[in-house]
Specification:
The complex is a heterotrimer of chains A (48), B (207) and C (332).
Chain A (H helix, E strand, L loop, with lengths): L3 E5 L5 E6 L4 H21 L4
Antiparallel strand pairs in A: 1-2
Chain B lengths: L12 E2 L3 H25 L7 H24 L10 H9 L8 H24 L17 H30 L4 H9 L1 E2 L1 H7 L7 H4 L1
Antiparallel strand pairs in B: 1-2
Helix pairs in contact in B: 1-2, 1-5, 2-4, 4-5
Chain C lengths: L10 E3 L4 H11 L3 E4 L5 H6 L7 E4 L9 E4 L2 E5 L4 H6 L1 H6 L1 H8 L4 H6 L2 H6 L5 H4 L40 H7 L3 E6 L2 E6 H4 L18 E8 L6 E7 L10 E10 L2 E10 L6 E2 L1 H7 L6 H11 L12 H15 L3
Parallel strand pairs in C: 1-3, 2-3
Antiparallel strand pairs in C: 4-5, 5-8, 6-7, 6-8, 9-10, 10-11, 11-12
Helix pairs in contact in C: 5-9, 11-12, 12-13
The chains are: A alpha+beta (48), B mainly alpha (207), C alpha+beta (332).
Chain lengths: 48, 207, 332
Amino acid sequence: MELFRYATSVYGDKVIIGASFDLLQWFVGAGVAAVLAHAIFKWIVPSH
Amino acid sequence: MSSHAGSVQAGQIQRHKLVDRLYHWVMAVCILTLLATSLLPIIGWKFAWLAIHWVTGLVLTVAVLFHIVRALFFQKPMSMVVDGQDLQNLGSGGRPGKYNLAQKLYHLAIAVLILSGIASGLVMLRKIDTPWWRRDPYWFSDSSWGVIYSAHDFVAMSLVTMIIIHVYFALRPDEWHLTRSMFRGWITPKEYKDHFDPKRWNAEEEA
Amino acid sequence: MIVKDIMAPFELYQPAQLKDAFSLLDSFGKDAWKMAGGYDSLDWFKDRIVRPQAVIDLTGIAEMKGIKETPDGVEIGALTTLSEIENNPIIKAKYRLLADAVSHVASPQIRNHGTIGGNASQNARCLYFRYGLPCYRAGGNTCFADTPEGINREHALFGADRCVAVTSSDGAPALTALDAKFVLQSSSGQRVIGAEEFFVGPNVDILHLTAAKPEEILTTIRLPSAWAGKNFYFEKVADRNVWDFPLVNVAAAISVQNGAIRESRIVVGGVSAVPHRLTQVEGIIQGKALEEGTATLAGQSSTRDARPLNYNGFKIPLMASLVTRAVRNATA
């Protein structure tokens, strides 16, 4: 899995053309993980 | 005092004025529309997305400019800035002002993301035909455009993470008074007493 | 650097049944490439722009070949060659428009092996895209054709949305004019969609010219009986009379009753990423007498809303002229 999408430019150079959208699942996962982490924390330490 | 829906009545403490709530929901609709029009086609739901996307982006830009002016000149901008007391409260468990540390950090992150998204998006508008101009792809070099597109892409994906977290907190029962205040504008005196430090947020004065 | 004429290695699979093709598509996913006659595919392979891990040659699947009459019209297997369609007595008798259109494709040798499914599904011929440059259609961030220096005499007049490439199919406008239905099958089932849903513009999908998903195979094209035996007209203008893609082509199916136009479907190719159906023109001429004035009116109104690029302005009078001729000369 790569962070960026690449292409070959008119001049033959490898150039970045954007972020890799394969990362989208990781951003969704990060949100879900944060939610789960907080929910579990509040469940274990309700009064915090 | 008027009694129409959404207005603050006796026994209620105003947290968000109507104009601020409207801004919040306009921004929410814009962000969700922008994410839907950009990410749904990528995951396979194909439709004519571009015009909806850039028009919504312009609406969001105007809304954010309005918010910046209002927050800086007609509200108390420092109420959203992290200060020493917030950090002390981490250890002592003291009550926050109008916004707690998590809300301030969230606001900071979302502000950076949205301003980055708007800045990169406005530049990207130069690459498409609009009623006001024909596109010009030669503003920047290929690699510079790549950096701008990457920034825009990362902002979009990061906003997905942020929205998941935001919706979760909005739905938590212990945060319901905050969620309600974004719909109705008010919290109860008990909620004010239980959750906030009157010295740091003088609701009466602000109202 | 783009290496020409030397294909990168790939695994070749030649399934004999559709279900085997589906299982190959499912197992290789986006690393698979579906190939019919191969005239579009081999260009990509030789230019090394497309480097699939697995090429699935569909030409051995017998159930995707042939022409048969049904109660609702005619079903054409997507692997039916263009020559078979051109010479088929049913098509010639009832859907002469399609026979005329495919007879204008490339050269006899290519029509002997090229298929109707491949012809309809072929990718854009924009020279920048085909050269392997990172344009929008290739997943990049720019269009090299729609620039002050861009060579765009073959590009779009209508429906450009960042990408200005056009459909170069001669069969697609005829299929659209005949209100063809496209049967797309995959391991999870089948869906049947109309031509106007099958062909997609850059506003909806900038990477593809059809709505076929990677896991789907276009298996059959159905021609409804509603347009069988109507007045038809097809004409193609290209730089060469044979073995060339259209600059503009027109396909018209017109239903005439008592000398008046009852209903029509007029479709122009080479001016948009999709076969450009002239629904406004169809509305204007509906009910009018089939005469010179109506044909002229159709031609004049056909190019309204055209947005020419730097070098393709000639397509506007060309298209108007072709539409006029189509309405004037459509015959049963």
